[in-house]
């Protein structure tokens, strides 16, 4: 499967009270990867939400990725995204199997991406490219990093951090394969607007 297009990431606070309708609207507009990102420790709610997302992803033929938690991903047979403090990649690959999608946060450091590639990552993620309402303190990355990463690392490149329809085009022009977005997608006033934004993010890939 080609990892290219919109990478939608959920946010439990932003989506409170409208979680499934907003996610479904995004899937309806077109999502290559959907990441379940929940920083709470409410395990019962996490299980319920992952199960619901899995059903939606099956209907829309979208790949589900769990943030932070390789064991939870293994339980549902889905992929995982691991940051630098979320545990090592090699055992996660062993746990999830060769076909699972495993992503790795590399901030603005190509060395981290090379290491992730050697340990079996499926994609590498760089950021933050813009001011992020969700994670304002994430280390900043420069857009030129994308071209350098594409030249050095033979894996899909995900970009993240403050991405909106107004600033995303140059990221794709510089070679980004996946636009990972929370606020710029789900910070919308209606499900119709979420779908419209998802379609518009994807259209950026067909115009290049
Ligand atoms: C696609 C993607 N890229 C980066 C991150 C950030 O991961 P991490 O650094 O572990 O931070 P948290 O998201 O866990 O707060 C991501 N989740 N997804
Ligand atoms: C979860 C996350 N990680 C980042 C990084 O740079 O590693 S930026 C970020 C937040 C992404 O949300 P938004 O699209 O609302 O800015
Ligand atoms: Mg993490």
From TrEMBL:
Question: Which cofactor does this sequence's record say it needs?
Answer: Mg(2+)
Entry keyword annotation includes Secreted: no
Q: Which pathway does the record list?
A: Cofactor biosynthesis; thiamine diphosphate biosynthesis; thiamine phosphate from 4-amino-2-methyl-5-diphosphomethylpyrimidine and 4-methyl-5-(2-phosphoethyl)-thiazole: step 1/1
Which cellular component terms (GO) are annotated to the entry?
A: cytoplasm
Q: Where does 4-amino-2-methyl-5-(diphosphooxymethyl)pyrimidine bind?
A: 35-39, 67, 105, 135
State the EC number(s).
Answer: 2.5.1.3
Which InterPro entries does the UniProt record give?
Aldolase_TIM (IPR013785), ThiamineP_synth_sf (IPR036206), ThiamineP_synth_TenI (IPR022998), TMP_synthase (IPR034291)
Q: Which UniProt keywords apply?
A: Magnesium, Metal-binding, Thiamine biosynthesis, Transferase
> Some GO term, biological process aspect, for this entry: which one?
thiamine biosynthetic process
What does the note accompanying the cofactor annotation read?
Answer: Binds 1 Mg(2+) ion per subunit.
Q: Where is the Thiamine phosphate synthase/TenI domain?
A: 6-184
Residues engaged in binding Mg(2+) = 68, 86
Short name of any one Pfam family annotated for the protein: TMP-TENI
**What reaction(s) does this enzyme catalyze?**
4-methyl-5-(2-phosphooxyethyl)-thiazole + 4-amino-2-methyl-5-(diphosphooxymethyl)pyrimidine + H(+) = thiamine phosphate + diphosphate; 2-(2-carboxy-4-methylthiazol-5-yl)ethyl phosphate + 4-amino-2-methyl-5-(diphosphooxymethyl)pyrimidine + 2 H(+) = thiamine phosphate + CO2 + diphosphate; 2-[(2R,5Z)-2-carboxy-4-methylthiazol-5(2H)-ylidene]ethyl phosphate + 4-amino-2-methyl-5-(diphosphooxymethyl)pyrimidine + 2 H(+) = thiamine phosphate + CO2 + diphosphate
Q: Which residues bind 2-[(2R,5Z)-2-carboxy-4-methylthiazol-5(2H)-ylidene]ethyl phosphate?
A: 132-134, 162
Enumerate the GO terms in the molecular function aspect: magnesium ion binding; thiamine-phosphate diphosphorylase activity
Function recorded in the entry: Condenses 4-methyl-5-(beta-hydroxyethyl)thiazole monophosphate (THZ-P) and 2-methyl-4-amino-5-hydroxymethyl pyrimidine pyrophosphate (HMP-PP) to form thiamine monophosphate (TMP).
Record-stated family: Belongs to the thiamine-phosphate synthase family.
Q: Which NCBIfam families match?
A: thiE
This chain belongs to the protein called: Thiamine-phosphate synthase
Gene name of the encoded protein: thiE
């Amino acid at each position: 499967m080609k990892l290219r297009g919109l990478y939608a990431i959920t946010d439990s606070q932003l989506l409170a009270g409208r979680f499934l309708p907003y996610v479904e609207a995004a899937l309806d507009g077109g999502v290559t990867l959907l990441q379940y990102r929940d920083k709470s420790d409410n395990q019962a709610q996490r299980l319920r939400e992952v199960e619901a997302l899995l059903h939606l992803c099956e209907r829309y033929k979208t790949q589900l990725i769990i943030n932070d938690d390789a064991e939870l991903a293994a339980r549902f047979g889905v992929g995982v995204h691991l940051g630098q403090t979320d545990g090592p990649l090699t055992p996660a690959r062993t746990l999830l199997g060769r076909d699972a999608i495993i992503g790795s946060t590399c901030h603005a450091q190509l060395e981290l991406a090379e290491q992730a590639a050697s340990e079996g990552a499926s994609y590498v993620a760089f950021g933050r490219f813009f001011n992020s309402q969700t994670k304002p303190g994430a280390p900043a990355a420069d857009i030129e990093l994308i071209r350098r990463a594409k030249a050095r690392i033979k894996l899909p490149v995900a970009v993240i951090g403050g991405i909106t329809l107004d600033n995303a085009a140059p990221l794709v022009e510089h070679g980004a394969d996946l636009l990972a977005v929370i606020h710029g997608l789900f910070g919308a006033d209606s499900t119709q607007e979420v779908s419209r934004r998802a379609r518009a993010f994807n259209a950026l890939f067909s115009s290049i």
